[in-house]
Amino acid sequence: MFRIQLFVFFLYVWPFSARSEDGSRLWLRYDPVSDVVAQRRTVQVNQKHETALLAQHELNTYWRGTSIQLNVDQKEAKLKEGYRISFSAGAIRVTAARPVGLLYAAYHLLRLQETVGEIDPLPIEEIPSYDIRILNHWDNLDGSIERGYAGRSLWKWTELPDKISPRYTEYARANASIGINATVLNNVNASPYILNTAYLEKVRALADIFRPYGIRVYLSVNFSSPVILDGLKDADPSRLEVQDWWKKKVKEVYKLVPDFGGFLVKANSEGQPGPQDYGRTHAEGANMLADALKPFGGIVMWRAFVYSPTSEDRAKQAYLEFVPLDKAFRDNVIVQIKNGPIDFQPREPFNPLFGAMQHTSQMVEFQITQEYLGFSNHLAYLAPLFKETLDSDTYGRGAGSTVAKVTDGTWHPKRVSAIAAVANIGEDRNWTGHDFAQANWYAFGRLAWRHELSSEQIAEEWIKLTFHTDETFIRSTKEIMMPSREAVVNYMMPLGLHHIFAFDHHYGPEPWGDRKGGRADWMPWYYHNADSIGIGFNRTDTGSDAAGQYHAPIAEIYGDRTLCPENLLLWFHHVPWDYRMRSGRTLWEELCEHYDRGVKQTRRFQESWDRLEHHVDQPRFLAVQSKLKIQAKDAMWWKDACLLYFQTFCKKPIPFHIERPI
Ligand code: GCW
């Protein structure tokens, strides 16, 4: 039997001596092996490819087990970027179709080494769920990050390409270790200047660093680039001159970055330019770029996050614009769709576009950065949110058409599949501001690799890698992480409430927010509709009928107040304050209950964490402790603000057992 037990000794005797420090090492806390270990085993590779050599190097440096043979075998094409690991008498054999598969296998083995006392010698075969597993950075060229809460951008545009920060490599390695293979460097609110030759040289420098780690670079582009950069009279995609401009630009990009991935585009959305400025459709705009990229194997990720201040319910607009275009997109266009129909709220139903477009490739966009979940101050483990969307059944092709299946290539096996998330990474020493926000970067990577993994499995892995394998610590930390997203929902906007955030910055509560002359769809009242009768957005057939955009039976379930899941009730229904909930409480009492529960949960998180003081290194213990304090205070702020405000409509007392607002 194959065993790796050596490290167990270290972990149990000195629980944190080996790993005690701040969060800068993320989940990559392996220590180099001693010379003795290195001499008793070999790590061999059958190819001199830089990525294969990197796999060899990682194992040589950190692997405490037996000898390993790494083989690239092109006959194994079905493995894509995956790998096979087999164990036989005293040796391990890794096979992959591509060199990057060996690198992923190396990290797999190291993960096992760090998390499992004894490795099961059964063969392992891993094939990623998605071809493209991509981070979207909303980083601006001036170094700021839109909705970034972990400091300024990692990318030092003023220093590149001459000065190379060591963090570029660390970033690439961290991503590779969880299977992320692509990155969009710049904000979707894109500066056209990213396509200037001077910037492309900087992009090339980053791409060169990321390449050995299997990471391809993509860019967000501004649809008006030809006008702004080269003075064309417009950017109308039907004009030859505009098409030629893009073709030339794409050629230039590929000359510098031969494995360039493609473009991400936010067009005709929140003031960004787009094809509609010239009376053209999203498909015409996307196809022009797709045609320019096609000869080089590049793709276009065209965002479906579109809405404007019309009389139409914002939640319906993307569907209305995109579904009629279903047959119009080129094969190398993927429509990138936010997980929900509004905007990364603590809870949304899945976006009805998933499964509605039968012919178009679709991908999910999640938000790892916590724009709407307490920035980097609140601990909110997001894997349960990601899973909730991926596991939602769209019924697009009958039962079992989950969002995961609609997007992972099952529907379009011949095209590339992709999944994206907006990064929470910045210059902070611990990368993500909150030490526990690292778990969300980790969880996205792991789910993009394999969407069947459970949130709990991922949490456990992350805890073991990031802290240590002490059972008490794992159990208590999981008890904080697992309910943490639901706690945020409870104290911010339970029962389907949404977008009652303070204007623009989206940190605190402002359900009363009203800016005279401001866009109605940016005012919280638009979403909660509280009045003397009740609260909630009527999206049934007597209201906006957004529920009708879903396939049967979801449309019926969401559209019927008695069938609608209560955690989405006020998303789809305007419900009287006295309405009896399943608990027997009235809606008002239930609302009070949820807000109060959220506050209590945050206090429990504090207590649990305090009890772990002697299980964690001091810097991280104190950092998390103080953030939990902020979270508990904020939770109370949310509860008091929302309950006192909604009380002005319902005019009912707050039940006795609920903590009084202060
Ligand atoms: O969530 C909203 C954000 C904007 C963002 C936009 C988008 C990048 O408030 O900051 O812009 O979504 O996703 O395009």
TrEMBL record:
<keyword id="KW-0119">Carbohydrate metabolism</keyword>
<dbReference type="InterPro" id="IPR037054">
    <property type="entry name" value="A-glucoronidase_C_sf"/>
</dbReference>
<dbReference type="InterPro" id="IPR011100">
    <property type="entry name" value="Glyco_hydro_67_cat"/>
</dbReference>
<dbReference type="Pfam" id="PF07477">
    <property type="entry name" value="Glyco_hydro_67C"/>
</dbReference>
<dbReference type="Pfam" id="PF07488">
    <property type="entry name" value="Glyco_hydro_67M"/>
</dbReference>
<protein>
    <submittedName>
        <fullName>Xylan alpha-1,2-glucuronidase</fullName>
    </submittedName>
</protein>
<keyword id="KW-0326">Glycosidase</keyword>
<keyword id="KW-0858">Xylan degradation</keyword>
<comment type="similarity">
    <text>Belongs to the glycosyl hydrolase 67 family.</text>
</comment>
<feature type="domain" description="Glycosyl hydrolase family 67 catalytic">
    <location>
        <begin position="119"/>
        <end position="431"/>
    </location>
</feature>
<keyword id="KW-0378">Hydrolase</keyword>
<dbReference type="InterPro" id="IPR011395">
    <property type="entry name" value="Glyco_hydro_67_aGlcAse"/>
</dbReference>
<dbReference type="InterPro" id="IPR011099">
    <property type="entry name" value="Glyco_hydro_67_C"/>
</dbReference>
<dbReference type="InterPro" id="IPR029018">
    <property type="entry name" value="Hex-like_dom2"/>
</dbReference>
<dbReference type="InterPro" id="IPR017853">
    <property type="entry name" value="GH"/>
</dbReference>
<feature type="domain" description="Glycosyl hydrolase family 67 C-terminal">
    <location>
        <begin position="432"/>
        <end position="655"/>
    </location>
</feature>
<keyword id="KW-0624">Polysaccharide degradation</keyword>
